[in-house]
Amino acid sequence: MVTQAPPEAAPAEPSARQVAGRRWRSARGVVAVLLAMVVIAVVLAALRPSTAPDALDPESPRQDGARALAEILRQRGSNVTVARTTEDALAAAAPGGVMVVTRTERLTDDDLRMLSGTQVDLLLVRPSAYALDDLAPQVRRSGPSFEETAAPGCALPVASLAGTVAFHQSETYEVTGPGTACYGTEYGGARLVQVQTGSRTVTVLGSGAPLTNRRLAEEGNAALAMNLAGAGTSTVWLVPDLPEAGEDAGQRSLGDLLPFGVKLFFLELLVAVLLVALWRARRLGPVVAEALPVVVRSAETVEGRARLYRAGRARDRASDALRSGARERLVPLLGLPRGSAQDPSAAQEIVTAVARRTPYDETYVGAALYGPEPVDDAGLIALTDVLDDLERQVRQS
User: How many helices (H) and strands (E) does the chain have?
Assistant: First the structure.
């Protein structure tokens, strides 16, 4: 007695939990990288010191204040006046003096307009983009620099006498017109630029570190700070107070408002996306051919398309398909090139050749192969009979 082996069971469909598990295992590396980037960005943003309200204040003894520089200038005979508003600064400014302007993000449009009309030399310490547009339009921000120290690299006396300066993190600038650029970087920007605007000189310093109590004794910081802030007969130090609510202040661009950690996070995110794209692209192998899940007979396909034509009353498309197929089958039998079946310029040649092989005249054959669409379904059925008869007679001739 011969027993038949039981048929092999079809592989079971994976459950939703199994599918979710496979997707998690394939994506957990990407998720881990993104989470690590978020943690790093948050830590860097938390460790980066924020700007104190009294930063670069000539009356502040804190590390980021500028009291030491103000006292040195007074001991050398310079008259240093501290102003909290633009009106007070302009009232205290005297011809031949220097006005040091810090915290320009607190200046309103009216403040910038008043400062742009003064004839006193200006020293702008890390100004905002809005302040540059109004007070030094020929100067444009180039980007940040993180080199600790830099040499002058220019013939400007205030820089060449100071020598190497410790800027630490600094903004860099480009001059679009006449001007002098000092302490340049290898990427083209300069940390100190000086331009002439009308009858006054505007100096733009990309870092406040050389003026602070903490960094004043480093390298040639003290010399550069005194050469810049004490270059005139008097010094007016403008540290604007926070504007009142409702005033048009806080002129800062989106780049000024974004913390450094956020910028670094987006940069890391871009790098991670590119790395993931390269990693996934390398895993792509050759195209794999898969068997169709269901085999559909050609007759069923034809019937399905015919039902769609009938439901849409598309007798024009149905008749075009019938005539095109008939011409494709007739052309080889007539000894004509296959490409002529769908070539309108070869229509007369095909009609003439078919008429010679059949008892019908060219008018009848032309109406059958290239005529108008049938007016109803009965006409469409009659067209199929006519095309079948033409093809049969050509084959038998």
Answer: 14, 11
pLDDT of residue 193: 94
Give, in degrees to the nearest 5, the angle at Cα 388 between 387 and 390. 65
Asked whether the beta carbons of 87 and 97 are under 8 A apart, the reply is no
pTM for this prediction? 0.55
The predicted structure's pLDDT at residue 182: 94
> Cβ(367)–Cβ(373) under 8 Å?
no
Distance of CA 313 to the CA centre of its chain: 50
pLDDT in tens, 276-305: 777 776 666 677 777 767 777 878 888 888
Look at the alpha carbons of 130, 132, 138, 141 in this order and tell me if their dihedral is positive or negative.
negative
User: Are the CB atoms for 214 and 57 separated by under 8 Å?
Assistant: no
99 has a pLDDT exceeding 90 = yes
The first and second tokens of residue 159, run together, are 């820089």
Looking only at Cα atoms, what is the longest distance across the chain? 123
- Judge contact between 64 and 56, C-beta under 8 A: yes
- Other CB atoms within 10 Å distance of the CB of residue 316: 13
CA 27, CA 34: separation in Å to the nearest integer?
11
Containing 192, the helix (H) or strand (E) segment is strand 190-197
What phi, psi does 234 have (nearest 5°)?
-150, 160
With residue 145 as reference, give the H or E element that holds it: strand 139-145
Compute the distance between CA of residue 230 and CA of residue 325 in angstroms, rounded to an integer: 95
Q: What is the DSSP string of 220-280?
A: THHHHHHHHHTSSSEEEEE-PPPPPTTSS-----HHHHS-HHHHHHHHHHHHHHHHHHHHH
CA–CA–CA angle 318, 322, 328 (5° rounding): 145
User: What are the tens digits of pLDDT across the range 317-336?
Assistant: 888 888 998 999 998 888 88
Give the mean model confidence (pLDDT) for residues 33-59: 72
Tell me the pairing of strands 165-166 and 149-150.
antiparallel
Helix (H) or strand (E) holding 194: strand 190-197
Rounded CA separation 317/117 (Å): 78
The amino acid sitting at 48 is R
* Nearest alpha-carbon partner for 193 in 264, 139, 144: 139
State which H helix or E strand residue 139 sits in: strand 139-145
SS3 182: strand
Amino acid type, 269? L
Looking at residue 213, its pLDDT comes to 92
